[in-house]
Amino acid sequence: MYGSESGTVPDDSERTAFRRAEKKYKLYYEDTYKSSKKKRKPKPVDLSQVLDFKSILESYNQKAVLPPGIVPVQCGFYFIPGALSVEEQCQWIRESLTIFPQPPNRTNHNAFYGPISDLFSAAKERKVLVAEGSSNSECSSAVSNGDADRWKFFEEHEVSSKGNSGKSVSASVLLRKLRWSTLGLQFEWSKRNYDVSLPHNKIPDTLCQLAKRLAKPAMPPGEEFQPEGAIVNYFGPGDMLGGHLDDMEADWSKPIVSMSLGCKAIFLLGGKLREDPPIAMFLRSGDVVLMAGEARECFHGVPRIFTEGENAEIVPLEKQFSDEEDVCVLEYIQTSRINVNIRQVF
Ligand SMILES: O=C(O)CCC(=O)C(=O)O
Ligand SMILES: [Fe+2]
């Protein structure tokens, strides 16, 4: 079936070493479970080649020696296992759900719905976003997108009593489909560049201070990291981030500070060419990665997150979110990963 093994020409999806690694780790389900979505079972994947910095650190702390076979990964690449305390992880998970997607920050939903305010609390209150149509003069405080439909949150019972004739989508579905939000200087995905003309707030001060502290090991001596923009990526089961370079920032000697929250993931760090075979490593909640200098020129991506039971490795988070009032956060994070990556743009 696979070209390279059967001697035929490989198809496009496995033409480079990076794509082959993505395919190796990507989530596939067992065929037998196709019919029932709930019971779908992930296909087993060989994780023996995935670097595990947590266990490397643990063995180093016990024996003061590194396990055999550990080599420097890449100049300018820093992996800080467990850099964030459980409390810090909880704080940034909450902010990623409630504060970061708030306008003027944009999200993947802007293109279709216009800016959406208070998505998380709307999901918590089981609200429904309803299109009111451009002719309707009753203006919503929540959303609008120019001449197109105006979208406004309603209580569930209000929508059903209206007869549900128009276009509508529940806030909880929109929350599940949240893929990114951008903080500070707004990254324009379609142009893969920053659009400094778009209205924006500064990076929140606490996040700024944290990023400055975390960035230190990768900063040129005597300089301080200036957080100007951030991208928050939200991953659900089966989501992946394809191999890419982050090359729209002016000064590559400054690191990208990247924090992992929620379910465990596999991160692929490749070389300067997609043909270079990448190194796979686990990223857990609380881990921080810095990419500066040479590492800024390396392809990287996230082919897999682990949302199944203990493989997610989020027990400490589940304990923190065990109060009744946090049930929405808990349910979200049990099948999600959030990555906050902070950048100096100029
Ligand atoms: O999710 C991650 O850990 C990596 C994110 C990333 O590479 C990016 O947003 O550019
Ligand atoms: Fe990236």
UniProtKB/TrEMBL annotation:
InterPro entries: Alkb, AlkB-like, AlkB-like_sf, Oxoglu/Fe-dep_dioxygenase_dom
This protein's record includes keyword Iron: yes
SUPFAM superfamilies attached to this UniProt entry: Clavaminate synthase-like
Binding annotation for Fe cation: 244, 246, 300
Source superkingdom: Eukaryota
MF terms in GO: broad specificity oxidative DNA demethylase activity; ferrous iron binding; oxidative RNA demethylase activity
Family the entry assigns: Belongs to the alkB family.
Protein name: Fe2OG dioxygenase domain-containing protein
Taxon lineage: Eukaryota, Viridiplantae, Streptophyta, Embryophyta, Tracheophyta
